[in-house]
Amino acid sequence: MSKIIRINLANNEIREEASPKGWEMIGGRALISKVMEEEVDPTCDPLGPKNKLIIAPGVLAGTTASCVNRISIGGKSPLTGTIKESNAGGTTAYKLGRLGIKALIIEGQPADNGLFTIYVSEDKVELVKTEELKEVGVYSAADKLRERFGGKVGMIIIGPAGERLYRAAGIANTDNEGVPSRYSARGGLGAVMGSKRIKAVVIDDSVAKGPEIANEELFKKTRSAMAELIVNNEQVANSYTKLGTAGLVNLTNSLGALPTRNFSTGSFEGAEEINGQKLYELITSRKGEGRPSHACMPGCLIRCSNVFPDENGKTIVSPIEYETIGLLGSNCGISSLDTIGKLNYLCNDIGLDTIDIGGAIGVAMEAGIIPFGDGEGAVKLLEEVQNDTYLGKIIGSGAAIAGEVLGVKRVPVAKGQVLAAYDPRAIKGLGVTYATSPMGGDHTAGQTLRSPVDHKKPEGQVEASRNAQIVNTLHDCIGTCFFVGGAIKGELQLLGDLMESMTGKPCSVEDMKQVAKDTLIRERRFNRGAGLNEADDRLPEFFYTEENPASGTVFDVPNEELKEVFNFE
Amino acid sequence: MSKIIRINLANNEIREEASPKGWEMIGGRALISKVMEEEVDPTCDPLGPKNKLIIAPGVLAGTTASCVNRISIGGKSPLTGTIKESNAGGTTAYKLGRLGIKALIIEGQPADNGLFTIYVSEDKVELVKTEELKEVGVYSAADKLRERFGGKVGMIIIGPAGERLYRAAGIANTDNEGVPSRYSARGGLGAVMGSKRIKAVVIDDSVAKGPEIANEELFKKTRSAMAELIVNNEQVANSYTKLGTAGLVNLTNSLGALPTRNFSTGSFEGAEEINGQKLYELITSRKGEGRPSHACMPGCLIRCSNVFPDENGKTIVSPIEYETIGLLGSNCGISSLDTIGKLNYLCNDIGLDTIDIGGAIGVAMEAGIIPFGDGEGAVKLLEEVQNDTYLGKIIGSGAAIAGEVLGVKRVPVAKGQVLAAYDPRAIKGLGVTYATSPMGGDHTAGQTLRSPVDHKKPEGQVEASRNAQIVNTLHDCIGTCFFVGGAIKGELQLLGDLMESMTGKPCSVEDMKQVAKDTLIRERRFNRGAGLNEADDRLPEFFYTEENPASGTVFDVPNEELKEVFNFE
Asked: Which residues contact B68 (CB under 8 A, 6 or more apart)?
């Protein structure tokens, strides 16, 4: 991949550049951090013309190895005020990789309120007026774009939420079937895309030459080795492939870490109604369009995604994921997968992050607007968001702002972003990640659920989080799914071999980790430039003072230790 | 003054302490900064039990000198996330001074949702249940408290805004006539008081012994010297006494600095309808209860306050001030003093900061909710706030949050707080103050309007702001009104002599300035502890990029120079 394409909305100029020398190993999140540091004033208004929206596949994108085609989208976040990279599956990284595109950098801002789509193919990149898509939901927008640009394009789309600059707006990527539900959800990047008046990016790789692979033989050999490890991995088959990420519900519930009723406890009496087994049963018994296992991106052998049907076999939503279940389900006291699926679909269509919206609905429930457990009420709240009412705007702003406006003191956010579905008092390594990650409350920034620590004790959590943050960042930089590490039994050198096959240069695990560390260092530097310091690396007060009854713990990793997370800085 | 009284709402304990040794010169804002630094975790939740609300008169409070009885109220701000001191006139500092009370420190938080009033007199301090005042407006609450505690008490009161934890909630102090309209308005401290479930502090000095004065002779001599300077100061008579602060409208309008239609320009075509002359004419022609000149605190000889009557001579509001006219008037495109007076009264009664609410209504107008200039619409917006509707909650959260929720990009705030009524592009020294003050956007933190600089040029503004911040902080520490400096022709040593008469120790202007500098240094240290760094010392982007058409300027004081404001640190 050698091209970087800049689209400047201030003057509608499109420019193609060669990828800078020395960037062979720089893709995805690493690339975003480099561009942000070199080109964007960290104090800029995230929704102003000085911010940039960067769409960057990982280094391995466009190839047919398993789990290597995740997309990174980044910029300065209007939710957290920090640098942000938000990562998703789908086909968009694959298609950009096949077009040899290392990054799309969307710059500036139009003077008027038009609405554009960026069309990218082998022979051209152009800005197309698509006013007719104003305020159109994501699913319907995808259909209309497909009618116009052909059935096989990949698409990156925002919903009304992004157009309206809601702080909880995400960005959808289409999957293998063209369903726009693989979300770069976090950090309000949908609002950044909306601020530039870009409704969609359409990627047409129909006549693409495909990615340049320096060493085809090494690539094929490594791809096969990985495939063999994955397909023979029983844990993958029994958990991720069969149950999807929903398989985590039982585990976190047993740890007292499943967010329940606005993080007031960590075990949910309705857990059995929303766990992986229940989801599997419903999908397999309802049949029709349902699929218990489904690949979110080309070539994926883990297939943790799913298609969730209603009683008549018609799709409610695809996929339904653990984080969504935890936040829109147990965190709201809702124990019906049908309701969660409906809420999930609505979020996807409006263009919202299910995690931040689940947090915001939990906060609205704590404020007494509707009671905990009121699924119908939650659907109505999302209809308020859809209809852009004042209450809808409050919810669409995410939990941090909703908490401020609604006068709620217990708001589960870090750097303004809702924590994922792991209570930081019960899985303290994740608490360290939430607090210290340059990304704010985000499990994919440093997942310690599988780390060899006692999750309820403060000891060892800083090291666990540090290691996880480095490895997770590594995946975000090279474009691999972070489940692949376990799936290939920790043989990360295989990823190094894939890197070598692409770049022609040997690549050790340490080399990849160095890319990750450098990325984290750049991100933290950007955040300091944006006005943050170590005192921002904290959780909300109630996690330190209010015991989680299910785990019997508060968050008690000492601040002095939190300062040591980035000891490689 | 020798007593510090602590009221802990967690256990309803009331404790009296002697003022620490060496605190003779420490009062008001200086005292707040000391207590906050020594006792409050800067990362704490501003609305949680770890924050404290500190009510501290200045060192000269309780005496009968002119202009020395301002009250300081402080804590960590839920609006700015910084340390905050908000300053007002009225009688409360005077009465606390007469009781020998150096500070009331309100700590902790009750477990339930009760509502209390703190009663303070010569012989007792007690917590009184006043559930019947829940959601009662400030004026009516004052009446009811007076019925209960007697007509001559001083009162510090919050409205429904503070009880509901609105981020733009202020705290009212009663004036000489018992009218609760001298506002410690800024920074959302009303919400801090509300979070502790304190509706009011009632101060009964009926049998007070009065303040201890170490050198009566020096005190009387200095008081007379000051009085003579003030009553013979023609500028005071012709501007402040006759026109009040509204006299500034013509000056700022001519400089292109009068905020107009959400800071989109700095001169207002309706300025003549809202200036000091117009106000004077209306008050003097309508007669009845109107007073063009009125003392906000005991003994004040400047008398810049007023009572503004309607056509029948009944009071609309008292006082009406320049900042309110600038924010609720021209900034909203409203050119009727009657409407501004009505808006002002509603803000006072609900318990809101007129500056932040004027900013929020301007933002709502920019969002298209009502058009600029729609006075009736603005009144209706405040009724939404009064009724606690969702739109009302958004406006009551202040302009920063309103801008986020309503998707408005031009939001005139610094550190989350609305700028006062001076466009920072046209009076650049104030821009420096807004950007760098530990208090956020606040003119009283460092007013440069009278500084010997070309307001439109970047040169010299950092020095002007530095000097103004030191002198303004000096006034906030000793409890003097910041108009007194001009009124006594810059003879600040007279204030030093008053200090000496109180403490018995010689006090030079440099000594007082040192107290101010030490205070600023402590405040900045607290803010760093709260997560801020120099990148937070900035104005919103649009002031740097969008020309103010009235002044023909952008804000262009270089960031490198902004770093030099606190060169004494």
From this structure: B58, B60, B61, B299, B478, B479, B480, B481, B484, B498
